[in-house]
């Protein structure tokens, strides 16, 4: 073969592959405008809203809007027809709080740049309420596709950050540009009780004090501005301050504060701030609200429950029982009995997380779900768990559709399958809450996404590949630590090192082990002259990992990392 | 079925008490150590709706109320710890030498099992102090050990006045001077921080006063000073609304702080640790400053070498209101032993020794009108001991807060955690809890150098 021919062959192959990938693009909206923007979904079980079902119905979409729903509806000429016999159609789900479409910025340790840790610049301290999530959106971020595949058409998206990361927006999970994704801008002021590593405000007491201080200053500045507008002559000019100005619409109650508050104490701390400062509050990513539901209800705060749930270890299978009987003597020992009691206590606690939505629903509370901390791969299984633990399918559907629409002020255009609503749909082959069900189509803003194959599930038991070079970062109260982890060798014979850009030290790893997608290892560092054993346990997902690092009595901190591409 | 599920769910979820409970209970026939009114043999104490309503003989319990037979046992006021860091999710906001705006009340963790351990040592109230990383630390919270709730508000002792933590010597100089390279680097620097902070607060108050006088005048165009929570708190100290609790060891700097406070007209002052207090006991008494000390703990750093176990006695004999504290989730369980050491070192009377863990810490926290002794009208906070509480053989039998039995040795479950950790690794050989020991410098270790 001549060189020239080879080049042509390559080109032809390239074109062929490109073409193929275009044709089979799974779940991707075609880059070319579709031939028609009119769709007819025929013969489907249409769940217009919780408890409102049309069997063998028709739903027509035109130009991104639902124009007809019901039986005996004429199908417009030129409509693309989707034969949906035996399929279920729901309104597209609405995520009450997430970072969907917002890439996580790289962690840097900026605190070292601060001369006086008690008086850091606002951006380094995590105080950036003037920021707008619209400026951070990336329509191609993989989270958009991941959430869409699950049936989520809409998110209340907020920036990453610490105490005051910026303002949220309602985004549609479709659109070529950030602006095309945005349905409603500046819908919330996002807040968290997270301190800044190594600098003020560092702890929860610092964050609470700073929040009160900023809010009171904003009230004062706002009142002065109002006076100045009335009669400026002779008055000192008010100084522009973007941080304080970001609170003005909050003070006017035009903009709610959305606070991430997971545990029972954080929720109550946030409720304290609300009652002292008086802002409208959306409590989001709530995990432990069951004992204080009355308090939440009385506060008037809107509520989104986290779809991140703790995992219950699987009970031993039947085949193990014989082995357990052999060990009967051992089981009787005091420590085993205590272990059993502790395990039962732990399981009962986990059960409370699972039962929480059912409980709150039975108490007449209205809530949606949020996914700030939830991993997309766990979300469907977690929804099933909630239903298994007493939440009716209708109530679960309400928490995914009508309730978040109501709580976020979107009911006019979203949350149900009715004439005139935005065409956000989820189409499944069985009830969505059936574990075996598959999402077949998702419509967002009238754009169709078709899912032929589920993303390949990880083979269970197969150990992930961990050998290679990784970069990591971890945030402790002392600051952000970054460095490299190098793992050599193969299964049962790993060795490796971890380096820190902060200390400049490199330490050897010990006890490296891989179990399925779990990687664990240990290393020793010297803190204040004492050797401290650090244990790391992470979940590896191809080229990234996430997990925790435990440093003896110093506490546990999140750690994450990614594989350094091989050259 | 649905109804059944709901009922089961409600039952499962209703184990945690929410409101501040007040109990009614009759304690019969004990030896009552009133602290303020001597020892009463074979006497009954009736607590009604959380308040001690009657002390006497042959009292009858109201209908349905629990009666506790204390025959042969000792009934004393609930023990009060004036220096503790239990039940806190954050102890130090260590990033700045002055953090008067922060408040440990924001970090109360009512689920800390240390509260129950303290109850098991007869302690009914503790002072949840900010740590000692800063010259001027944060406001603190006085908590009642009402264990069994997830609501931090339930623990707050609403009647207690505001308190704030100050610190002298090595901690603030090492954290800020050594760790961050800023003032204070030396003891002189610590004094300078106090003086400049209070001067700034005075100016702030004056600006507000001027503004308030003029703001309603016709044609007023002036501006108010910018609201500053840190200066607001410092101003409240100058106004006498907050009791200062100052971490201290050396006599020279104890004396220094009294001079600073005299210059700024601040009167409410309690020294914490105050290991060299015995050297300046008359001066402390003259100022009216109080002292909260360790019984016999020292030499854990350079500034704590010059110490004596007679410190509490010497301070007491010089007229300084003195208490003995724990500063530790472990020591808090046996403060009655700590108080007894004043009898070994100094030969204090039973009553004076017990005052050090009851009425005296109550005075230091400004709550002596409610607690610290067994008197009619005071809160029903009681500790019942098997033997005299100062005996080495004694055993705490029962602890009562607001008339509610919070600890009962006869009915003491193994697992008293309120919430289990859904992610915990179950390991019954795990010994370290991370809750015991000194937490004074918690959250500040990373700034601690040299």
TrEMBL record, chain A:
Protein origin, superkingdom: Bacteria
Classification via InterPro entries: Amidohydro-rel (IPR006680), Metal-dep_hydrolase_composite (IPR011059), Metallo-dep_Hydrolase (IPR051781)
Sequence ranges of Basic and acidic residues compositional bias: 104-116
Pfam families: Amidohydro_1
Gene3D superfamilies in the record: Metal-dependent hydrolases, Urease, subunit C, domain 1
Domain Amidohydrolase-related, first and last residues per copy: 361-448
Residue ranges of the region described as Disordered: 102-128, 314-338
PANTHER family: ALPHA-D-RIBOSE 1-METHYLPHOSPHONATE 5-TRIPHOSPHATE DIPHOSPHATASE
Name used for this protein in its record: Amidohydrolase
Annotated organism of origin: Fulvivirga kasyanovii
UniProtKB/TrEMBL annotation, chain B:
Gene3D superfamilies listed in its UniProt record: Metal-dependent hydrolases
Pfam family, one: Amidohydro_1
Alphabetical UniProt keywords: Signal
TM spans (from-to): none
Keyword Signal: yes
Domain Amidohydrolase-related intervals: 312-391
SUPFAM superfamilies: Composite domain of metallo-dependent hydrolases, Metallo-dependent hydrolases
Domain of life: Bacteria
Cleavable signal peptide: 1-19
Keyword field contains Signal: yes
Protein name: Amidohydrolase
Organism this protein belongs to: Fulvivirga kasyanovii
Lineage, uppermost ranks: Bacteria, Pseudomonadati, Bacteroidota, Cytophagia, Cytophagales
